[in-house]
Structures are given as C-alpha cells and as structure tokens.
Amino acid sequence: MVESVISHDPARSSAGVFFDPQPLTTPTERRFQRRHLLGLEGQPASRLEAWLDRAAAWRDRWRDSRDPVAVLRGVEVCNAFFEDSTRTRTSFELAARRLGATVVSFGVAGSSVSKGETLLDTLRTLVAMGMDVVVMRHASAGAAAFLAHELDVSVVNAGDGAHEHPTQGLLDLLTLRDAWGGRFEGRRLVVVGDIAHSRVARSIVHGLQTLGADVTVTGPPTLLPHGIETLGCSVSGSLDAAMSGADGVMALRLQNERMGQGRLPSQGEYARVWGLTAERVSRMRPGAVVLHPGPLNRDVEIASDVADGTRSVVLEQVANGVAVRAAVLEWCAEREAA
Ligand code: CP
C-alpha cells in the first residue's frame, strides 16, 4: 500500500512528505511453473476432466459469493488481444480479478504496435514489466506457441487464427457435460457451418474425441476442409441427416474476416440450407441442446427463435467461460512444489 511507505512529518521535509526507508514488501519466492495452454489437441482426458471439475467448483462458489479470493494474489495477468473480443477478453479479466490477480488489458489500438513494433518486441516489453501469464488472441495460427517458445512466461491461447481456441473448447465441454448428465460416452454433437476457418470447431472436436463422444461436422463443401475427418470426426453432406438423433448441435459463425470471395452464393442461401431452424432442431433427441460460441448472426447461421429457445444453452456457455478461465489461470500460475 502506498500509504504504508509515505510518512508525513513537517519537521523533516519542506513538502512534508518523504519515503520511509522500510522495505516496500517482504520478498516472496515466485517460482511459477510457466505452464502453457495452447490447444486441446493431445491433452489427456484426465487433464480435461480436472479443468472441468475445477471450473465447476468455482462456478458453485460464485453462486454464493463473488468476494475475491487470494488464490492468484501477486500474479500479474496480461490480456493481449490483437483481434476483437467480447466474451473471451471480459471473462479472462473477470476470472483473474475474482482470483485476486492483477490484470492489464492490452489491445492493438492505442499501443506501439500501430507504430510498427513487432509482436515479439511488444510482448517482451510487457513481460519485462513483470507479467506472469499472457493471454493472447491473434489472427495468426501458431502465434501463441511462438510466444510460449520465446518468452519466460505462461501463455494461454485465447484464439489463434483458424487453429484452436482451447478455453472456448473447455467451456463448451463443461456446458455439454451438464446437459448430458455428466457423461460423454455414447453422445454425439453436430458442428455446422464454417469449419474451414473455425478454431472453435477444432478445439471441440479434439476435446470431445478425447472424452469419448462423437462429432459430426457438416456445412457447405467450400467451408469443409479436405481431410477434416483425420481429426477424428465424421463428415456429413446434409445438415438434416446429421441432426437426426443427435444430442446437440453447435452452429458456427461465418468467419467473414478469414474468408476469401466466392465461398458462398449469399447469406440468404446459406441460412436456407445450413441455418439452424426450429424444424431442424426438432430432429434431435429429446433433451438435446443448441450451442453457439458467439458472436452470433441472428437469422444467418441460427434462427432467432432457436437462439432464444428452450434448447439454447448459449448463455450457459458464456457463464461457464468465467469459471473455465479461472481454472486455467490457476493451473498456469501454480507454484512449483517446494
Ligand atoms: N467465442 C468467442 O471467442 O467470442 P469473442 O470473440 O467475443 O471472445
């Protein structure tokens, strides 16, 4: 506290203020493990389940009390977002604050990136100020892995191009685990839309495959990458067929910012053939749920009445995002055993 190191003694200073020679703080050993979360690919089932269990525990606690806890006291988290975000950026910030960390949010606008500074120099600068965890969103696949290699800091991938969005994958898994009564085996999720440009699709395919559920991906052929089935999902050419008997469906936003020209005839045509409608949702099993990572384009990939309907768990996904990000930050900043 500033008050504890500044004394007021008019006899010793004409301004009446001088610095007390006491040490500012008691030095503490801060040997964090420098863990990174770059993707869900290759994460063992036990690790995924541990994050989901911890997130569920934070969610339960925060139903009763939002009082900050000191789990991450002394930890400095840098939210470095080189692409726009509402949900991910805000929920990382809320999670870090609720765990007692200090958070700095950093975007391209207003920073020296606009003057030509490289990504690495910018992040080196921030880390030199004492950051322990960097949460980064970037338009380039592999950007988070590059930083994790170059910097002595924990890195969390908050979405890198069309590669992965692992904390989105975890919050989707938590939402599905709730909806599916705690078990993934024997369940099937349909993922529909712009698979080619979707980091969300890759993370949920990896996560569900590891935990024992099936995934069917479907969408316009121009937005289905060649060889996607090698990730462990099945591919369908028909949304109606894919949704018959499914336990859930996730509609993806058309990633116009990553899409070249000529992939789709029109948004209206896309909505007619690939949009989620109430009739299509009724093809799924009783109790099946509708997910969307957001931001959603109403009446393009999802009809408004479906987005707001009784099967929709879109806002549960958002709420689970805070708890999942708390679990991940806590894991990243865990201290080494003595
Ligand atoms: N789902 C998701 O990543 O949303 P934001 O772009 O708002 O963070």
Short description:
With 338 residues, the protein is an alpha/beta fold.
Beta fraction = 15-25%
Hetero ligands: phosphoric acid mono(formamide)ester
Mean pLDDT: 89
Order of helices and strands: EEHEHEHEHEHEHEEHEHHEHH
CATH topology of the largest domain, what is it called?
A: Rossmann fold
Q: Can you tell me the CATH architecture of the largest domain?
A: 3-Layer(aba) Sandwich
Shape: globular
Tell me, what is the CATH class of the largest domain? Alpha Beta
- Number of helical stretches of at least 4 residues: 11
Rg to the nearest angstrom? Answer: 23 Å
Largest sheet: 5 strands, parallel
Instruction: Name the poorly predicted regions.
Output: 1-17
CATH superfamily of the largest domain: Aspartate/ornithine carbamoyltransferase
Summing up helix and strand content along with how strands pair, one would put the structural category as alpha/beta
Strand arrangement within the widest β-sheet reads 9-8-7-10-11
How many strand segments?
A: 11
**Integer count of domains:** 2
How far apart the termini lie comes to: 28 Å
Descriptive tags:
single chain, 338 residues, alpha/beta, Rossmann fold, 2 domains, 5-stranded parallel β-sheet, 4-stranded parallel β-sheet, 11 helices, disordered N terminus, binds phosphoric acid mono(formamide)ester
Question: What does this 3D model show about the protein?
Answer:
The protein has two domains: 45-165 and 321-332, 3-Layer(aba) Sandwich (Rossmann fold), CATH 3.40.50.1370; 167-319, Rossmann fold. A five-stranded parallel β-sheet has the order 9-8-7-10-11. A four-stranded parallel β-sheet has the order 4-3-5-6, with helices on both faces. The longest helix has 20 residues, at 45-64. Helix content is 35%, strand content 15%. The protein is globular, with a radius of gyration of 23 Å. The chain contains eleven helices and eleven strands. The protein is α/β, with parallel strands linked by helices. The two termini are 28 Å apart. Strand 3, helix 2 (87-98) and strand 4 form a beta-alpha-beta unit. Helix 1 crosses helix 11, helix 5 (166-179) packs across helix 6 and helix 5 (166-179) packs across helix 11. Phosphoric acid mono(formamide)ester (CP) binds at residues 85-88, 159, 165, 168, 293-295. The site of phosphoric acid mono(formamide)ester has 10 residues, from helix 2.
